[in-house]
UniProtKB/TrEMBL annotation:
Keywords: NADP, Oxidoreductase
Residue ranges annotated for the Semialdehyde dehydrogenase NAD-binding domain, each copy included: 5-138
Family statement: Belongs to the aspartate-semialdehyde dehydrogenase family.
Organismal lineage: Bacteria, Bacillati, Bacillota, Clostridia, Eubacteriales
Pfam families (alphabetical): Semialdhyde_dh (PF01118), Semialdhyde_dhC (PF02774)
SUPFAM superfamilies reported in the protein's UniProt record: Glyceraldehyde-3-phosphate dehydrogenase-like, C-terminal domain, NAD(P)-binding Rossmann-fold domains
GO MF annotation list: aspartate-semialdehyde dehydrogenase activity
Enzyme class: oxidoreductase
Name this protein carries in UniProt: Aspartate-semialdehyde dehydrogenase
Length: 361
């Protein structure tokens, strides 16, 4: 595989920092440029994030002395320096949409962690193990944008990564209804306990917009392409509640699922389907792909956030406590690392898939 020069737009925030750590020693990607807001621009990266490095791993040396570019005013310069960019900016949605389209029109592909384009109907929103075929919509998007190389691809909301992968191999049994309660770490809000002391010993039963995303985004992942648009699936129906909990990293979900009458598989069959589930990233042996995507724990008290969030470098999904339910057919719990599988790592895996399929060439 050739080497790709990579830019990170929004490199000073928590997800941007995670992107930078994931570029260190990546076999395909070379960190070449970092861009952020005007207040950070013009300074070496280490100086721009001084006192704000939020991760428990050190800043990569290759990033320290890169001079931060202005994401808006230096767009042409950045686009000329790299093969593609990751984007994780903190701006208003309409501003993000405009910024990402501007880079795409400059023939710089964008792999976005932002939610702004998730419902643009010719922008693929991809979990690589679930709907890699949606990348085919990029040709229609390029026609709309008038580009040869440039496009936008996005990853889904971070909380979906914990429960949708476990539901995906069970859809074939006639999955009809899903109730999910998510328990989401504070890094999902870009915070640490030092910056958000009111979260210590606390649980907040509200995350703005999160329940709507949790109920609707799975239907786009499971949708199909028709007339140059991604049409969302008609079901199953979802209902969700989302809580912010006092964990630094790791989104957990309690899931209840109901199948069409008489079609519910056995618990043994569900566990077998989870164990056997492989996607295109595993078949292609992409660098960031977990060897085993879904890990099932038989212990009654697993998965646990602190013990299991870093499974397979934070790119696997942990599942446990599958059992019958009194109102639904079954219930279970699952866990994923929200800034790795759920955010930056999921976007890096998506970029690897795009490279393997030739979309970055």
């Amino acid at each position: 595989m050739k080497q790709y020069k990579v830019g990170i737009i929004g490199g000073t925030g928590m997800v941007g920092q995670r992107f930078i750590t994931l570029m260190e020693n990546h076999p395909w990607f070379q960190l070449t440029a970092i861009a952020a807001s005007a207040r950070s621009a013009g300074r070496p990266y280490a100086e721009a994030v001084e006192g704000r490095w939020a991760l428990d791993v050190p800043m990569p040396e290759e990033a320290r002395n890169l001079v931060v570019l202005d994401a808006e005013n230096d767009a042409e310069q950045l686009a000329s320096m790299v093969d593609f960019c990751f984007c994780a900016v903190d701006m208003k949605k309409e501003e993000i949409r405009a910024l990402e389209e501007r880079y795409a029109r400059l023939e710089c592909p964008i792999v976005s962690n932002n939610s702004a384009h998730r419902w643009t109907d010719d922008v693929p929103m991809v979990v690589p193990e679930i709907n890699p075929d949606h990348l085919e919509i990029i040709e229609a998007q390029r026609r709309r944008l008038g580009t040869k190389r440039g496009f936008i691809a996005v990853k889904s909301n971070c909380s979906l990564q914990s429960y949708v992968p476990a539901l995906h191999p069970l859809k074939k049994y006639g999955l009809e209804k899903v109730l999910v309660c998510t328990y989401q770490a504070i890094s999902g809000a870009g915070k640490t306990f030092q910056r958000w002391p009111e979260m210590v010993d606390n649980c907040i039963p509200y995350i703005g917009g999160e329940e709507e995303k949790s109920e609707q985004e799975p239907l786009k992942l499971w949708g199909h392409i028709e007339d140059g648009k991604i049409v969302k699936a008609g079901g199953p129906s979802f209902t969700a509640q989302c809580f912010r909990v006092a964990c630094q990293d790791g989104h957990m979900a309690a899931v209840f699922m109901k199948f069409a009458d008489g079609k519910a598989p056995s618990m043994e069959q569900i566990k077998a389907d989870w164990a056997a589930f492989r996607g295109v990233p595993q078949e292609l042996e992409l660098p960031s792909a977990p060897k085993q995507f879904l890990h099932y724990f038989e212990e009654p008290d697993r998965p646990q956030t602190r013990l299991d969030r870093n499974l397979e470098h934070g790119m696997a999904v942990s599942v446990g406590r599958l059992r019958p339910d009194t109102q639904y057919d079954y219930k279970f719990v699952c866990l994923s690392h929200n800034t790795l599988r759920g955010a930056a790592g999921g976007a890096v895996l998506l970029a690897e898939l795009l490279c393997a399929k030739g979309y970055m060439d």
